[in-house]
Amino acid sequence: MSAELTQALQKVLQPVLGDVVIVDLQRLTGGASRTTWAFIAQDGEQRRPLILRTGARDDIHASMELEAKVQQRAAAAGAPVPHIVTADNSPAAVGNPYLICDAIGGETIVRRIFRGLDDAGRSRLLGQCAAALAAIHRADPEGIGLTAPDELAGWRRRLDEIGDTTATFEWTFRRLADERPDPSPMRLVHGDFRMGNLIVDESGLAAVLDWELTHIGEIYEDLAWFCIRAWRFGAPESQGAGGLGSVETFLQAYEDASGTELDRSAFRWWLTVATLRWGVICRHQAERHLSGEAPSVELAAIGRRVSETEWDLLDLLSGKGPR
Length: 323
Fold this sequence. Notes:
Helix content is about 45%, strand content about 15%. By secondary structure, it is α+β, with helices and mostly antiparallel strands. The protein has a 5-stranded antiparallel β-sheet, with helices on both faces. Strands 6-9 form a two-stranded antiparallel ribbon.
């Protein structure tokens, strides 16, 4: 497989980079919906580290070409993203649609990132995350094929497809439907902006990764998703924004970077949606294990977090929640 992929990559990159030689091809761990490879494109003494991402087309994730276009739009707006080299929705060249971008040095494993941060480093990274989101939301979403799904209806449908629910989930869906705030302007959103999808180096935020859930939506969706318990990775509730600082500090940093005044009530509604979303995802992952589709201790463990999510939902619906 590696030899065949090496030859395919040389053909793919020839029109873009010239007659490069592909060396050090290695598959990376991680990635639920995409397969990721690292390699070097070598031209004489020049070595260019690159990343290949591949994945079959489906109805949930953005196509590779769309993902590339969105990253280019985000980069033009000032967001830190990997430079796109080439992308193609056709599976002909490497066996699946693909995207190739420049590799960026740094760390993605959150617990390692946290170990390397003091209080000042956490504060700096939190501000950089807010500024990156502000840049993403400034990007032009027009004319590239993005959709604008109804998030609440989408997660209702996903839960119904599982054929199982909980009283807390049902009550939350009803409360959210009854208390839905007036819509805010639609923007380009990342869709999965969280710790774990960021590269962090000694200067802080180096790049925002994993754009396969990008779409058009409200800015609160991205802001809230960053602040659910799962992405704090054990940090205290007082550091509710990605385990880096308080939610209010994060929202204020976003307001400063974007020039936008946020509605705290709308944010809280979206934080409840985000928490419910994570709960449905946990239940879905458990079902993959329980049904025999993908027997996995990891999936089973994620399924056990449904009750944790229910607790968080009850807190949010009663007026409590992360700070």
